[in-house]
Design a protein that fits this description.
- The chain has helices spanning about 45-55, 70-80, 105-110, 115-125, 125-135, 150, 155-165, 195-210, 220-230, 255-260, 260-265, 280-290, 300-315; strands at about 5, 15-20, 40, 60, 85-90, 90-100, 185-190, 215-220, 235-245, 320, 325-330, 335, 355.
- The protein is an alpha+beta fold.
- It is globular.
Amino acid sequence: LYPWIITDSGSPSLLVWERNPYYYKVDINGQQLPYIDKIVSQQTEDVEMLNLKVLTGDIDFMRESTALVKIPLYMESAEKAGFRVVMTDMHVDSSDIMFNETFDDPDWQKISQDVRFRQAVSLAVNRQELIDTVYYGYASLPLELVGEQYSKFDVPAANKLLDDMGLTERNADGIRLYPSGKPFAILLQHAATAPDFVPVADLVAQYLKEIGIKVTVKQVDGSLHSEMQQANQVQATISWSHDRGWDNGAVSGLVGGAGRLWYNWVRTDGEEGEEPPAWIMEAYDIDSRRWQAVSGSEEYKEIVAEGTQWCRDNLPFVNFVENVKYPMVVSVKLGNIPQSGFAIAANFSGEQMFFK
């Protein structure tokens, strides 16, 4: 039923799809789709190497691994490399910080599971600086999932929240101390899945230092990062969040980031992991009712609104921005490229693309 059929390339790092001669769709003139005969996808070592291939003209189409932070490089190389940049919408919120509240550290668990900690982190993030420097103005404050109060940049308010939690003692470097006397340090590990994750992680580390939290940023291999997350070994990470194409999939869909052992408990019906607190179980209840409602109905809309309010009340993860634009890089030789809407939609209309 698909427009292309995967074939044996002889290499695990190379995927090749050939045109399906029995594909059922035709265009308005009765011509059978797809127009393109073959698709080749080459695995690279990391996202930076992939972007390098774009700049040298070796890629005809790329969406998943682009980023606004690369726009200057794209524009400098576009004419010579034979591609153009189409500004479309991103179907997910581009970046957030996820705290694994079940990470194996009793000091950390007690603090991270207090919503005031997550509120303090949110207030410490200079989102306007992120919007201006990383997203080139093509983003907005996360009013939907964070809300106006905690989207503000207010370091004094963030410090007060942490003080109110009892984290008033600091060491000689100005780093807060847990009640046990241990320095409050976070290891933030990410896989650099998108080019903007690196500068965002580094800036967040600087922001949190201003409220007395030491953050060490470490980039790891994507496969290793995934394995570590599944094993409850990642304390904090930078990731995408909230799939806007699924009407607030941020409710239960990302609980695994908020607490891996909680996620395991739900996934295995209590056979593994740890039983989640009531506020986490509320997320699953909201989603269960949403999935049973008729999409687009008034009941459905009310449940979606309930989900976004749950996110604002609990901050299961701290969203940095919303409504980010997405640079889609395409060869000047390709036609029928979407010019608006979600960039990911282009992946589902590929059978209509053609080489001029």
